[in-house]
Amino acid sequence: MFENLTDRLEHSFKLIKGQGRITEVNISETMKDIRRALLDADVSYKTAKTFCDEVKQKALGQNVLNAVRPGQMMVKIVHDALTELMGSDASDINVKGNPGIMLVAGLNGSGKTTFCGKMALNLKSKKGKKVLVAACDTFRPAAIEQLKTLCSQIDVVCYSEDGVKDPVRIAENAIKTARAEKYDVVIIDTAGRLAVDEELMNEISTLHKAVKPTETLFVVDAMTGQDAVETAKAFNDRLDFDGVVLTKMDGDTRGGAALSIKAVVGKPIKFVSSGEKMEALDIFYPQRIADRILGMGDVVSLVEKAQEQFDEEEARRLHKKLAKDQFSLADFYDQIQQIKKMGNIKDLASMIPGLGKAIKDVDMDNDSFKSIEAIILSMTPYEKENPAIINGSRRKRIAAGSGTSVVEVNRLLKQFEGTRKMMKSVAGGNIFKQRRH
Hints:
The protein has helices at residues 3-14, 24-40, 45-60, 70-85, 112-127, 143-154, 167-180, 198-211, 226-239, 256-265, 286-293, 299-308, 312-323, 329-341, 345-350, 355-358, 370-377, 381-385, 392-402, 406-427, 430-436, and strands spanning 100-106, 131-136, 157-159, 185-190, 215-221, 243-247, 269-273, 281-283. By secondary structure, the chain is an alpha/beta fold. A hairpin with a 7-residue loop joins strand 7 (269-273) and strand 8.
């Protein structure tokens, strides 16, 4: 997401780069280019125009310091304006109550049911909540089975009633059950439709009034661009929901929905969802998204993802092995599995400042690890712990067993040796000693 917009904005900033100061003339040309970039990213015309007018006013009113070039100042102004456009701060959810009730609405195909599963796992694993998920989508035959399957994957109870077509009755009974069995939160999955229609609006409004949710979230497919924004507006006029969830953010989306929804609907984006993995749900941080749009990376999110997979006891064990130069290929394999759990490797790499642009055209995904994993799995336990013994005949056997070549085996062993030396240096504090001298 945002790759094209990032490139276009970079081009816009070049128009003012090298200028001695910001003037009415050079800022006008830059803002025209930024407006075109936003429109190409599927931002609504009104939102793009208002955004550019505000940025222009701020830029012309700035006293550019001698130490700061006009191009740098423009990046800062646009960054702050983008952050403000998307809501400035991350918005929390309200699931307090006896129990807290979250109502999830959206169109068919928006990823609504999958989000319910992801949200249940998020509340369970990160907030320590006991969660009950209510299957109230009685319109789509496969929805209840889909929700049951998702809940079984994450070990969360799914409440449903066979043969009952009234979603209000199912929801009310789910809440009674949750109250009796001391559940903290009930997540209600509601029926979607293929388009916004009166029947859907009446049903969701009736359900909303009956259960009085503490949090109402509207799920939209980010890939539908301005249609997502208009759909959100139509729902908000009837439901007055608390926030938006953008799904399919890893798809071929230009980012317009993320940039427009807060301005058009007046409600914050609270979560972004990408991929099929149940862990792939993130809080929406406007400033971090602005960082990524402007090619600054997102190190904070990268660190948070790493910490989610971080095992303190395992880290201590690994540190001892590194210090004693005992880091093995088996340990190397385990580290690859940890990295893969964090998400798509290209998305993770793009969070590192400056790296996103460098890898834009590189074909990189989690399958890139397959040959490395196959090579390591073709070794004996003794070879994994003692790679120095892997001679020519062993390399041929490992290559044959892994479906790779001797060249690839040699490359892995060389890379591993370099990685081990570097990690030992960091673990032993040698880097810091070198810096002092």
